[in-house]
Specification:
ABC transporter involved in vitamin B12 uptake, BtuC; 275 residues; single chain; 13 helices; two-stranded antiparallel ribbon
Length: 275
């Protein structure tokens, strides 16, 4: 469980650094709600709660949501927060309507769909050739971390320029729209993979809190990414250990420690600036 939380935390923290710079930190929250119709349709078509159909349905709608947000904010000049709010509320409401309308065919509850529980990670395993390979969430979070690191390393220049100055990046011939869409799609996939294991609330906390804490210390992208990953790692470990010690919610413990880290760094930075 701890390793799954750590992998997820680092993946979300790295992507969260770009979202903080772009002032789009609530995209993760939007996507975690917007994917509900995709999950409902995937279940109706497959009549299965298997991870793959659910993931494909959620991922497709998640990417669709990011495209809609991008078009609304960039092409049609709708404010980014309004674009995010309208997209996720509309899609989430559609998902609720679909589940209600197909209630005799779709044995799903929106709360169960949206909010995973990290404590259940060890029980959902997979096997290969009769050999148990361990929890699905551990593998998926590990693969996600590898993909995020490769994406960030190979696309660092494009992500850097499009995050700080889109006009200058366009002059240099960098495809700003393509980089924006790729980042939003990556966040969408990361959110879909993560919330099934750790829950939607913790995914949002991991996308926002470590990067926001790192931003208090450095506004340079590379140090900010490293610090965000460090805060995500430390918050996950501390939250897990405290939750295990006091037998409380693991996701709640991790999210709380992420908030405590932010409050401490904020207090320290404010004190050093005034002294």
């Amino acid at each position: 469980m701890a390793l799954t939380a750590i992998f997820t935390a680092i993946s979300c923290a790295v992507l969260g650094a770009f979202l903080v710079l772009r002032k789009m930190t609530m995209v993760g929250d939007a996507i975690s709600h917007a994917v509900l119709p995709g999950i409902a349709i995937a279940y109706l078509l497959s009549q299965s709660r298997a991870s793959l159909p659910m993931f494909l349905g959620a991922a497709l709608v998640g990417v669709f949501a990011t495209v809609v947000i991008e078009i609304l904010s960039k092409k049609w000049k709708v404010q980014s927060d309004a674009s995010i709010g309208m997209t996720f509320t509309t899609l989430f409401a559609l998902g609720v309507v679909l589940i209600t309308f197909w209630s005799d065919k779709v044995d799903l509850d929106q709360e169960c769909v949206l909010y995973g529980e990290i404590a259940f990670v060890p029980f959902n395993t997979w096997s290969l050739a009769g050999q148990s390979m361990g929890p699905i969430a551990l593998w998926s979070s590990g693969i996600l971390l590898l993909i995020v690191l490769i994406y960030t390393f190979t696309g660092y220049k494009g992500l850097l320029m499009s995050s700080f100055n889109e006009d200058y990046a366009a002059v240099l011939g960098i495809g700003v729209g393509a980089w924006n869409l790729s980042l939003m799609s990556m966040v969408s996939v990361a959110t879909v993979i993560s919330f099934e294991s750790v829950g939607a609330i913790l995914v949002v906390a991991l996308l926002v809190a470590p990067a926001a804490t790192a931003y208090l210390i450095s506004q340079k992208l590379k140090p900010m990414i490293l610090l965000a990953a460090l805060f995500g790692l430390s918050g996950s470990l501390l939250g897990y250990l405290i939750s295990a010690r006091f037998d409380t919610s693991i996701a709640g413990g991790i999210a709380t420690m992420l908030g405590v880290q932010f409050a401490l760094i904020l207090a320290i930075t404010q004190f050093t600036r005034t002294s």
